[in-house]
Specification:
The complex is a heterodimer. Chain A is an alpha+beta fold. Chain A folds into two domains: 186 residues, no CATH class; 171 residues, no CATH class. Chain A is built from eleven helices and twelve strands. In chain A, the strands form two sheets. In chain A, strands 1, 2, 3, 4, 5, 6, 7, 8, 9 and 10 form a ten-stranded mixed β-sheet that branches. In chain A, strand 6 and strand 7 form a beta hairpin. In chain A, helix 1 crosses helix 9, helix 2 packs antiparallel against helix 7 and helix 2 packs across helix 9. The two termini of chain A are 26 Å apart. Chain B is of the alpha/beta class. Chain B has a domain of 165 residues: 3-Layer(aba) Sandwich (Rossmann fold). In chain B, the strands form two sheets. In chain B, strands 3, 6, 7, 8, 9, 10 and 11 form a seven-stranded mixed β-sheet that branches. In chain B, helix 4 crosses helix 5. The longest helix of chain B has 18 residues. Chain B starts with 8 loop residues before the first strand and ends with a helix. Classes of the chains: A alpha+beta, B alpha/beta.
Chain lengths: 388, 236
Amino acid sequence: MAIPVSYSFRNLWTRRLTTILTASGMALVVFVFASVMMLAEGLRKTLVETGSYDNVIVIRKGSQSEMQSGVDRASASIVETAPEIAIGADGRPFLAKELVVIINLLKRGSDKPSNITIRGIGEYSLALRPQVKLVEGRMPKSGASEIIAGESVAKRFRGAGIGETIRFAMRDWTVVGIFDAGRTGYSSEIWGDVDQLMQAFRRPAYSSVLFKLRDSSEFQKVKDWIEHDPRLTLEAKRETRYYADQSEMMAKFLRILGITLTIIFSLGAVIGAMITMYAAVATRTAEIGTLRALGFQRRNILAAFLIESMLLGLSGGLMGLFFASFMQLITISTVNWQTFSELAFSFTLTRGIIVNSLLFSLIMGFVGGVLPAVRASRMNIVDALRTS
Amino acid sequence: MKTRTGPIVEVRNIYKSYRRGTQTVPVLEDITFDIQEGEFLALMGPSGSGKSTLLNLIAGIDKADSGTITVGGIEITSLSETELAGWRATNVGFIFQFYNLIPVLTAFENVELPLLLTGLSRSGRREHVDLALKAVSLSDRADHYPSQLSGGQQQRVAIARAIITDPTILVADEPTGDLDRHSAEEILDLMERLVHELGKTVIMVTHDPRAAGKAHIIKHLEKGVLNSDVHSEDTL
């Protein structure tokens, strides 16, 4: 049986100040690590949750996003005939032909313009996105210059509040409703009737066609048909896949940045832990000699000091995570580099990030503790006892 | 109680030297003697005479250059380091000058420590520790930390820890060296009781003639060489 963990724990507790100071260094590193991961996760979640698994988005072959895509009216009509598309309550295909345009709007309280996505919607657009709900006002009437704005847009952009008007595409558009799209990318959009918007922007083609599958397992079938029909130059993706692809570049960039930063920071924290543990070994030399004399093996001593150091790392990890969890209260708005439009998202803490952060802190503790622990385990018993 | 014939400790032709820089300093030269079971032996001698080294060799925490030491029928000089650690856990009880209790563990936990190396269950360990603490009259201090105990009490906890595994031998290095006269007296009485009532074999290094007076046999070491035995009555 080994030296009890309580021995390691109480030694940390006995020198609380040193423990807290050393753990704080590690906490800082874990904080940075967790925060960047939370940021990447928040971004991914916002974009992925924007899509539904059963929905299929059809865009022009080779285009990265709806914004770059164009689906002419004839192609859209061919897609509409696919038997795999679910049927809506009125007996028509559960499908929306949409237009996506980026415009510039001024933010409230500043003269700085920012890009915003305008989406031309069809009758089924709202129904295809169950996460989007009209919370105030009403839907735009077809044929009228009316729009509805996402909550985040209404809050942050000049003229986007209910009853206000925004001028774009040489028309004044009245905001008649506000929709809540949770944390999805739609909350950073403005929606209006697709036909009105196509006319105003003088666009001859839709950007995308979105439909719901009759049966989720038929995705491959409809995808093959769309992509191989000689009349069409389109590709079909599950909506979730489409948005995950959108988030990939930025999330990857954030992760690489985060990991690089934390590895550099962690060197400092590891050295801090090493100094603390070397000091602990030095002050407890007689204790180590006693434990060895009593019959504990070298490996027991090694384990006891490694556990102590890993507990030190873990307490730093918990401290860092505790502070990082408050980052969830912050919402960041930035440009989505793939669509060049405004995107609002929050730091998101997931179980995976918690596990990884704690694992990371344990590794820091282990690396910092291994050399001092080896020194402790290699002490000559008689020499160690003599220090008392 | 173990029943066996012959000496419990046999020390044969032990040589031990230390390296100090390029020089080799001899500490023990051709030491040979026996200790009988149930004997209370005191090792005396001036500083640097090698008495602590001899004690360390018998306790299996140091290695001799040559010669053999057999304790309880096991030749410990031929054991590997790992085997030696296992052997110490069940065969040697240590009593140190500065008690060497683990400061972050309570009296109970300190006494329990050697039992963690045995296969004893939690309840079995509790039973043993309670008995040992009772034997040193410290049952009421089980939950105290070493810093909350007097020097004499700490040494009593250390004795409880030394006897908890019912070891073959008890080794004590200046057990009264850090204690006032009254506490020292208590500790020596306790050690005497261990020998007389429990039949323990005790090997004690001491400078203190009063402590040595409690022993059955006193051996004097002078510059690494053992002088003839003196029975304690003769020194008093």
